[in-house]
Amino acid sequence: MKKKYYVGLSVIVAIVILAIDQITKRIIATSMNIGDSYEVIPNFLNITSHRNNGAAWGILSGKMGFFYIITLIILVVLVLFFIKEAKYNMFMQVSISLLFAGALGNFIDRLLNGEVVDFIDTNIFGYAFPIFNIADSSLTIGVIFIVIALLKDASSKA
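Structure (tokenized):
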């Protein structure tokens, strides 16, 4: 039986997410000073210009060489996983595309600027969540979707 890949859909998802990520970051970087903030939804959502030269929550700040190596490894692993394991599963392929776009979006920032542009500033139930961007959102949604796909696959085999 022939393996079925949804390469067109996967490429479109990755390109659209990557484009939105890079365009929004460019708008923030060119139109706002670092620290500037605009309230969008009171007590919930602000657009705040922030830079991060580490991982989530500023972990490993300034370790760009480490991030370059890890990101390249992750991108290669995602492509290999897509080719080997995601056959017949459009949901899994789209999930991998979300991970790929998110990782590549932040990698581009690190490579070109030495830091990542973050701007989505939320306050959820009184918790000031760390400022993030579209690439971070794509990574998070991709991970959630992969967990769902794996759980669904595991329950269908049981």
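The two ends are 23 Å apart (CA to CA). Residues 7-156 form one domain.
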